[in-house]
Amino acid sequence: MIGDVLITFSRNTEDCPSRTGQPWTLAASLGETHIYTTLPDDQWHGFPLAEEEDERWQIWLLGELYEDFPSLTKAFEQPERVNGHFLLIGFEKESKRVHVITNRLGTEHAYYAAGAARAALGTFSPAVAKAAGCSTLNLQGIAEFFHFGFFIGNSTYWEGVELLPAATHTILDGIGKVISQFRYWQWHYDPSSSLTYDEAIDEFHELFRTVLTGQVSQKRIALPLSGGLDSRSTLAELGKPDLGGAKRIFPFSYGYSDDSVETRIALQLGKKRGIGVRAWTIQPYLFDQIERVCASLEGFQDITQCRQAYVVDELAEQADYVVAAHWGDVWLDEMGFRAQEMLPDERLAALITKKYSKNGSEILQALLAPNLPKNWKDVLIGKVETNLSSLDEVTELDFKIKAWKTSQWSHRWTLSSLRMYQVGLFPLLPFYDNRLVDFFLRVPSEFVAGRKLQIDYLKRYAPDLAKIKWQPYDTNLYYYKYYDTWGLPRRAIKKLGRLLFPHPVVQRNWEVHFLNPKGRAGLNCFLLEPGLKVQNFFPAGGLEQLLVDFFQNPTARNGYAVSMLLTFSAWLERYG
After folding, report:
1. By CB distance 3.0 to 4.6 Å, which of 65, 251, 485, 500 could disulfide with 84?
2. DSSP annotation string for 141-178
3. 211, 199 Cβ separation under 8 angstroms
4. Is residue 482 scored above 70 in pLDDT?
């Protein structure tokens, strides 16, 4: 294992922050190229590391390959064939060039900067910014972060520091200048007219089983379970006597309350397969762990969202890897535009900007307005339009929006959140495996609409799990389609019961962390204390009034605004 990597094109790493405060240690030098690393510790488990060296190359693979590949040196000749959750860094000895390959969907993040001091590259963005001498904040990018809840494109908190794009091979010369960067894989969508619906179900089953069993082979695995379909699908394949080839499986679940429907369903799923499930009720941990959370996420996600932080230490005692079945719900559903004709990119960019804006983002934008140009939203729409230009080969509107969401939301939000697991163990990502991605690129959208294919897969191959309640519909997979017909009387009775006997239900992360004395004190500490950096960007009176309004009437709208302000302030105090 390795903690983080920082590559500079001079030897000066003075004052460069590390994720856990560990010192950067010189690991190798090639001319002016210097490679520094940190060690894993109990605050950051880091990345699996594989190395390969010959007369021409010195190569580091951070992460995991999901299929055998003849050699890492061959990967630089055929990157499109490399499958896994990885970042590949190669050093050409004679030319002193640095090569970096990101995988198809960019699941491991690396940042690059060419600043006033020097060029730098690495896995921890604050260290890259400091090493390169980049200190000017990217206010346009921060406004976009508030708008969507994630940065878009390759932008970060700093001007001049960029995330390396997915599916790219980047080459730097001996002084860190980018001399080449090209995509080795392009988005496309070719639904098969010869694939029948029944064949698609069977093929998904075979492929999903192959991907999962290959990823977990001979590993100690933590397996999250919930009330949704993706974790249930992983249990369908792994919750068998042979455990899918894993050494050990540790199923777990967490909810907001002791009577959480999420954990109740998880316990029922485990019982069906004869597997005990460890269940937690999430307590207000955030202000006790805010340094660790901020370091793991690097500020790229609302820090109230990563519930893994509450359980990761205990998970690390039971397992070395976690099966993170993220993004299955996107692949295995439609986006709601299947019946519409393709739109020009300009109109589609405006539609996406509106559709995916966060409720409450307007509060933040109003507060930040004095520091922004008046046309900042036009710039945002223009950036979304630029993002869409890379999807020109996708000619179906519904899948084009899915591809945009995968290349942006998944790349910048979902994958950032997975780093919280890396405090203690390494995530395995079945729905980011190239083989499953290739499958979804040829499945007609009507097959997955309304989660139909996944539901019929479970009914066919795991009928015992299909009989358990699906949380959003409050019934099992055999009766969910009657939600708006036969289910109406039952829903009406339950609603009447809630009106007659109200029982407060905690539904959001910020409710756990903020609506208690520790949360109020924590928000005051990070938003209202004199001298905080966040007050350079937002009027102190505006921050105070926002908190007054929030505690008088907490809503999803102002709860989002307060969460994002806390995220920004915590990041500023540590790295800004």
Report:
1. 65
2. HHHHHHHHSS--TT--SBTTEEEPPTTEEEEE-TTS-E
3. no
4. no
